[in-house]
């Protein structure tokens, strides 16, 4: 049985992007290598349209001449996994091993978890909010960056309560802190 994992880089005040977009401190080589290892066992990524449009970069990132080895390694991890994009507006997908679903059905996700030999990842705060509300997320991974942005897109939806158990933590030289929690059932 696979676990459903929700993991993203956040600001200290809990936003996955600030009011004007991403973060300057979000990713360095040490952190990227750790993320590569964290996601090596994920067999399926679940995306909303916006997150898929961001992540599809990894379909061809390994071909960029100045791509560092950690980027090439992550591209290979991403390419090896299946991707499911949930969107009512996206006309088609543009990456291998990817399919389009029009609706997010919690019972279907629960079945996929039960039938999977590897973990699944739900990516992007909008789609993750649906999975959290449905009680589907088994594990949360927060990469908390050294900054407060004061607003933007929050990591957690504001209307849920989930009891968590700390499983792991790691501090990076960049000031990023990783916290991994399991959902208490």
What do these coordinates show?
The protein has 185 residues and is of the alpha/beta class. The protein has one domain (4-183): Dihydrofolate Reductase, subunit A (3-Layer(aba) Sandwich), CATH 3.40.430.10. It contains 5 helices and 10 strands. The strands form 2 sheets. The protein has an 8-stranded mixed beta sheet, with helices on both faces. A two-stranded antiparallel ribbon has the order 2-8. Strand 9 and strand 10 form a beta hairpin. Helix 1 (29-39) runs parallel beside helix 3 (69-80). It is globular.
Layout of helices and strands:
Layout: E1 4-10, E2 15-17, H1 29-39, E3 42-48, H2 49-55, H3 69-80, E4 82-86, E5 98-101, H4 106-115, E6 119-123, H5 125-133, E7 139-144, E8 153-154, E9 164-171, E10 177-183
What descriptors fit this protein?
185 residues; alpha/beta; Dihydrofolate Reductase, subunit A; two-stranded antiparallel sheet; 5 helices; globular; Dihydrofolate reductase; RibDG_C; DHFR-like_dom_sf
Total count of strands? 10
* Shape verdict: globular
Looking at the chains present, what oligomeric state does this protein adopt? single chain
Stretches where pLDDT falls below 50 for ≥5 residues? none
Report the biggest beta sheet as strand number plus sense, adding barrel if it closes: 8 strands, mixed
Overall helicity? 25-40%
Give the class from helix and strand content and strand pairing.
alpha/beta
**What is the correct CATH architecture?**
3-Layer(aba) Sandwich
The H-level CATH homologous superfamily, spelled out, is Dihydrofolate Reductase, subunit A
The N- and C-terminal alpha carbons lie at a distance of 16 Å
Beta fraction: 25-35%
Number of separate helices: 5
Total number of distinct structural domains: 1
The sequence of SSEs as H and E is EEHEHHEEHEHEEEE
The top level CATH class name: Alpha Beta
Average pLDDT, all residues = 94
CATH topology description: Dihydrofolate Reductase, subunit A
Rg, alpha carbons: 16 Å
Spatially, the strands of the biggest sheet line up as 5-4-3-6-1-7-10-9
